[in-house]
Amino acid sequence: MNSSSEPAGTRVIAVVDSPTFASINNSGFHIDLQPQLASVSHMWAALKDGSVDARARVLIFSDSQHETDPTELQAVAGAIVTMSVAGATVVLLTKSSQAREVIESAIVQLCTQQGIDPETVNYQVFAHESVEESLATIVPAEIPVTESSSAASPNSRSRPALPPRDQQPTESEPSHDGMPEQADRDLLNQPQRPGQVTITVTSSKGGSGKSTASILLASSIARQSAEAGAPLSVCLIDLDIRDGQVASMIGQFMPTALNIRVQPIWDEERIKRNLVHAPGLGIDTLLAPIRPRTAQSVGPDFYRTIVRSLQRMYDVVVMDTSVQYLDPLISEVALVEADEILFVTNLASTAVQGMARALREITSPIDESGLGIPREKIGIIVNQSLAGVGMEQEQVAAAGLGIPVVGVIPLATKDVLTATNLLRMHELLDHPLLGPAYSQLVDACLPNIARHNGQ
After folding, report:
1. Residue 131 and residue 169: Cα distance in Å, rounded?
2. CATH number, domain at 410?
3. Are residues 249 and 391 located together in one domain of the fold?
4. How far is CA 438 from CA 230, 403, 421, 432, 435, in A?
5. CA 404 to CA 22: how far, in whole Å?
6. Are 309 and 198 in contact (CB under 8 A)?
7. DSSP category for residue 431
8. Pairing of strands 276-278, 283-286
9. 3-class SS at 13?
10. Residue 58 and residue 203 in one domain
11. What is the DSSP string of 81-131?
């Protein structure tokens, strides 16, 4: 707690166990930590009677005391929704993966019941022991605790000033080997998994169905490989850090890439802890940050490191990108790190013309101001395909500058919208038109699956 001789720091309410409360209190951050609260009901009562400061804008919850108490976990979820929507900064310190799943599921359920967009419920998830890491991302710079103030505040210790909350941590400076200092060299020095394949799905036009194609391709790979008796582990990365759609389409919003970014080392355990499994789809996902303003925190150096780490953890990595193909995340990471690149277009003339322009820039040599990406890595997906609309596949192929069409996905707007809105995208794999189309696309991308299947 801060000495009364010091200016008040960021007001923090902590609904946590005693050891965690002590860790927060002894962290050295300049905060005005309110009295410890044992439960959410105690928090509401304390706010009502004034025993904690209602002006507190940072709330920390923990599942450690109540990991087997579903009623309290539901209460935590309700508090997270209420306080986050009210504009507070909320952190969940989690000790139990099962308790965390209960809380996150309850948050989505509560949002549905209350007509709240889950994307407006912003909270950060950290491992229970990561108190300092969590505080480093949420406490703005005010007056840092210094050696001269330690006499007045015996629990404090010196640390540098922290960046303001609206100035998220910036990309780490690469070390002498070109990788950020948080990179786990032991993991990156391991060989990639045998036969590992990394696929980038991109486009030059919004509304082409790129994210739908990314999700269904990744899920189709997982399903077909399992059916062939040689199951492949698949991870989908949402690289659209300013307008990512994957979270909405699978109905889960936390944790995101930012939760990995703030870790002291990006090792396999911390990466896996912050991936989201998509039930029914059979894949893991790395979600994009919820807030576009955090985009600067997870730039090319971070994602290049994570992609290479995931290549050593998963048989197949699929990257879903934005449509800004000159963005460094695409031009320096997604296109470069991929073994295969799938360019998605629909049959609108503007989409086909945009594809032609993008492919020309992507494949032109660097000395001609292009990106120098080999044509052999690229294939075209014609999505939302429909006959008789004034654009034939031959015209698409011609606009593709000799790059082959490797997949044709029929138009099924109503079924896709229904499955997406009801969070039943996995059902599209059994769709009479879409299922076979994605199966053929998988065969084009990973012919070994077809051979295992006896085709």
Report:
1. 17
2. 3.40.50.300
3. yes
4. 18, 19, 20, 11, 5
5. 61
6. no
7. -
8. antiparallel
9. strand
10. no
11. HHHHHTT-EEEEEES-HHHHHHHHHHHHHHHHHHT--GGG--EEEEETT-H
CA gap 138, 168 in Å, rounded: 9
Range 148-163 average pLDDT: 30
Domain identity same for 88 and 222: no
380, β-bridge pairs: 343, 405
pTM of the model: 0.65
Matching residue, tokens 């070390």: 175
Alpha-carbon distance of 447 to 449, in angstroms, equals 5
Q: How far apart are CA 417 and CA 423, in angstroms?
A: 10
pLDDT tier, 177 (very low <50, low <70, confident <90, very high otherwise): low
- Domain with 86, as residue range(s), is 10-149
For 369, half-sphere exposure in the C-beta direction (CA atoms, 13 angstrom radius) is 1
DSSP bridge pairs for 10: 31
Compute the distance between CA of residue 79 and CA of residue 98 in angstroms, rounded to an integer.
19
Q: Which helix (H) or strand (E) holds 219?
A: helix 210-227
* Overall average pLDDT of the 362-388 stretch: 90
Instruction: Please tell me the predicted confidence (pLDDT) of residue 172.
Output: 54
* Count of domains forming the chain: 2
What's the pLDDT at 5?
A: 40
Counts for the chain of helices (H) and strands (E), in that order: 18, 13
d(CA 202, CA 342): 6
Q: Assess whether 400 and 330 both reside in one domain.
A: yes
Beta strands in 303-423 (DSSP E): 316-320, 340-345, 378-385, 405-410
Cα-Cα-Cα-Cα dihedral of 12, 16, 17, 18, to 10°?
10
Which tokens is 298 given?
């997870």
Q: Give just the sign of the alpha carbon dihedral 79, 80, 86, 90.
A: positive
Cβ atoms within 10 Å of 421's Cβ, excluding its own: 10
Structure token digits, residue 167:
């100035």
pLDDT one-digit tens code per residue, 212-251:
999 999 999 999 999 999 999 999 999 998 888 999 999 8
The Cα 94–Cα 92 span in angstroms is 6
The residue type of 131 is: V
Q: Calculate helix-pair angle for 97-114, 70-85, nearest 10 degrees.
A: 50
CA dist., res. 11 & res. 52, Å (int): 10
CATH number of the domain that residue 40 is part of: 3.40.50.2300
Alpha carbons within 13 angstroms on the beta-carbon side of residue 113 total 8
Q: Which helix H or strand E contains 236, and what residues bound it? A: strand 234-238
Q: How many residues does the chain have?
A: 455
Supply the mean pLDDT for the chain.
83
